[in-house]
Design goal:
The structure holds 2 protein chains of 2 kinds.
Chain A lengths: L3 H26 L16 H23 L13 H18 L6 H24 L2 H26 L6
Chain B lengths: L1 H13 L3 H19 L5 H11 L5 H26 L8 H12 L3 H34 L4 H18 L4 H15 L2 E2 L6 E2 L5 H4 L4 H19 L17 H6 L1 H16 L5 H15 L11 H25 L5 H12 L8 H4 L1 H24 L1 H5 L6 H20 L2 H18 L5 H24 L6 H4 L1 H16 L2 H20 L1
Antiparallel strand pairs in B: 1-2
Helix pairs in contact in B: 1-17, 2-4, 2-17, 3-4, 3-10, 3-15, 3-19, 4-5, 4-6, 4-14, 4-15, 4-17, 5-6, 5-14, 6-12, 6-14, 6-17, 7-8, 7-21, 7-23, 8-21, 10-19, 10-20, 10-21, 12-13, 12-14, 13-14, 14-15, 15-21, 19-20
Chain lengths: 163, 506
């Protein structure tokens, strides 16, 4: 077990097996509804229990494969930088989980999100090219036009009560 | 037969009115634009449009979705030819020869060939859709719970085996999708499974937010995490397809059409596999295989015919069996269900005109891609200039507001975000979303079919293996499993060698 993908396979194998065991255990705990005299072959836990056991089987095979150092090698995406992943997650989840529906109206939340996302993702190139002011203006324009257009389309055309 | 032609004629006429034509051309154009943008897939286009069209009448909504689907798969060839970046996964095979032709100063010709191949593939697929769907529906009327259980399992296993490079991870995603589909009230006794008293979970996870998360939000995160590349546009020569190319390669077009439809019908196997298989078959049969990858017209035609033929191919099992042939077809199936259409064997009895409506929708979508392919090439290229740093945040807001708009509840937004983040993380480790989505769509069918089958047979498992269709499907599932596990593969090959040696001695 040497490469990144083999270590990942081993750890994911353990994770899937644990999840499968949990699903199978929870399915086993589900009521058999004997009091309702239902056919025992229709108990609610039957199919999820089987799926849980199947997940355990696949998880064990994956973990063993990772342990032995077999399996296909993962293609590494050299273009994906950790700071971009972190920023994308913080901005998108901050908008969807933290801001939307928790105070500010939709148009304001969407506008702030669009402004920050466009500005921050273009920041390194803008700084290098010395066009930061133009970047701020563009991010502002995208935010205003985007937020106004999306609010109008959903609120006025599709009659959605936005959060 | 004649009844079918009459129904098709009625459907064709029904869409010949201004509103339907506006929807057709608007949605196809939108699909082409989405397809042109690397990183945005056909599935994303259909998922987002499902949320936007939820309040439209069923036929209008499904027309828009089908046009966007056809447009996106076609539009992806633009960036494949001009940038060597496939617009959608289905156009990866088109990069090989399309980009080489563009480098030789024949970008316009390459786009003309892509248009020819796409239109020919679509028309061939549509013919198969019109002929095979009613026949398959009739066969499926004899199916019972046993067959439907195996069909659902077969779909998930096939999708897992073929999507990506690692079948084991595909199956894990398929099983995970089947499990997620079971969260909430079960369809037979109404027992709340895995809800733990939560009202939202008790109702089950809504399909569309999960799909938007898996294909929309996960893709937004993937593209945002990558460094953006500014595309450089090449000069474009004449885009008119040459009749000589079509006549010269009619065998390639026909072969790729058949392969595309066949792969489309296989549950969960998408347009990308259809394009690669058509390309490989064309190379094997070609008189000039050495030209493939260096700007072969035949190679480009094969790839584009194959992926477009697989679109109607993927809709065939979705309509006749309620088992989607590809990930976008799974979203289309979900949209049909949301709009009150019940695909499956009873469709030809309950709503026979709907199958022909779908055929007509595909025909109009094909005319629309021909129109845009011939007359609007240069303006359409402008979309490639829009930087992804602008498009992706807007798509993210659309994913959020689209998920919210279905039932006006924030829980759907949270479901979408959670699914998107999980799929984004798993994709980085070689897990693909397509088998998960297929499992999600087929989970309920598999659950009910297994339990009903057991009730009918009073717990006897024999009918699950002895009925002819069940026996074939069970054998394929078992063989797929065994052949993709190294130890099983070695054992089967060893046994086969033993049998062959014995036969040769005799």
């Amino acid at each position: 077990m040497s490469t990144r993908s083999q270590r990942a396979d081993f750890l994911f194998g353990l994770l899937w097996s644990a999840l499968g065991l949990l699903i199978a255990f929870e399915s086993w705990r589900m009521p058999r509804l004997e009091a309702q005299h239902i056919n025992p072959y229709t108990i609610p836990g039957l199919v999820p229990g089987m799926l849980g056991l199947l997940l355990v089987l696949f998880g064990v095979i994956l973990a063993l494969r990772g342990w032995r150092g077999a399996g296909p090698e993962l293609a590494v995406n050299a273009d994906a930088a950790p700071w971009r992943i972190g920023l994308a997650l913080v901005l998108c989840l901050g908008f969807g989980l933290g801001v939307l529906g928790h105070g500010p109206p939709f148009w304001l939340a969407a506008g702030i999100f669009l402004f920050l996302a466009v500005l921050l993702f273009e920041l390194p190139e803008r700084r290098a090219a010395g066009t930061l002011a133009r970047g701020v203006v563009r991010a502002g324009l995208v935010a205003v036009i985007g937020a106004a257009a999306l609010t109008f389309i959903f609120q006025e055309l599709f009659l959605v009560r936005l959060p | 037969m004649f009844e079918g032609i009459g129904l098709l004629g009625n459907s064709m006429l029904a869409f010949l009115e201004p509103r339907a034509l506006i929807y057709t051309f608007g949605a196809t154009l939108l699909g082409i634009l989405v397809g042109c943008m690397p990183g945005l897939s056909a599935t994303l286009a259909i998922s987002l449009l499902t949320t936007l069209t939820i309040k439209l009448p069923p036929n209008d909504a499904i027309l828009i979705l089908i046009c966007a689907y056809v447009g996106a798969i076609y539009g992806g060839s633009r960036s494949a030819i001009l940038l060597n970046i496939p617009g959608t996964a289905a156009n990866a095979a088109a990069c090989l020869d399309g980009y080489q032709l563009a480098r030789q100063g024949q970008a316009g010709r390459a786009m003309g060939i892509a248009t020819t191949g796409s239109v020919a593939g679509s028309l061939f697929g549509i013919l198969c859709l019109a002929l095979i769907t009613p026949a398959l529906g009739e066969v499926a009327l004899t199916f019972q719970s046993y067959e439907f259980f195996w069909l659902a399992l077969f779909g998930v296993m096939m999708s897992g085996s073929i999507t990506g490079e690692d079948p084991l991870k595909g199956w894990i995603m398929g099983v995970a999708g089947l499990f997620v589909a079971l969260i909430g009230q079960d369809g037979i006794h109404g027992y709340e499974r895995f809800a733990y008293g939560d009202v939202n979970l008790a109702g089950g996870l809504s399909l569309i937010p999960v799909l938007v998360g898996a294909f929309g939000f996960a893709e937004v995160l993937t593209v945002m995490a990558e460094r953006g590349h500014r595309p450089k546009l090449l000069a474009v020569d004449s885009i008119l397809p040459r009749i000589r190319d079509v006549i010269m390669y009619w065998r390639t077009i026909l072969r790729s059409g058949v392969i595309g439809v066949y792969i489309g019908i296989l549950p969960g196997v998408g347009e990308d596999m259809a394009a690669w298989s058509s390309y490989a078959a064309a190379k094997r049969a070609s008189k000039h295989p050495e030209e493939f990858g260096k700007g072969s017209v035949e190679g480009l035609i094969a790839a584009e015919t194959g992926d477009n033929a697989s679109i109607p191919g993927g809709i065939i099992p979705a309509l006749a069996l309620a088992i989607p042939g590809s990930a976008p077809a799974a979203v289309l199936l979900a949209a049909m269900m949301i709009h009150g259409v019940r695909p499956g064997p009873m469709l030809m009895i309950e709503n026979p005109s709907f199958v022909y409506d779908v055929v007509a929708m595909n025909v109009y979508a094909t005319f629309a891609i021909l129109f845009f392919g011939l007359f609007l090439v240069r303006p359409l290229l402008l979309v490639l200039r829009v930087p992804r740093t602008v498009i992706m945040p807007i798509i993210c807001v659309l994913c959020v507001v689209g998920s919210f708009s279905i039932a006006s509840r924030l829980f759907d937004v949270y479901t979408m975000l959670f699914t998107g983040v999980i799929i984004f993380a798993l994709r980085r480790y070689g897990y693909h979303a397509a088998p998960f989505v297929l499992g999600l769509v087929l989970g309920d069918l598999m659950d009910k079919s297994l339990r009903r089958g057991l009730v009918i047979s009073d717990g006897d498992l024999t009918p699950f293996f002895t009925r002819p269709v069940c026996a074939v499907l069970a054998a394929i599932v078992a063989l797929t499993l065994v052949m993709n596990i190294p130890a099983g593969n070695r054992a089967v090959r060893g046994a086969m060698r033993g049998v062959m040696a014995r036969f040769s001695r005799n």
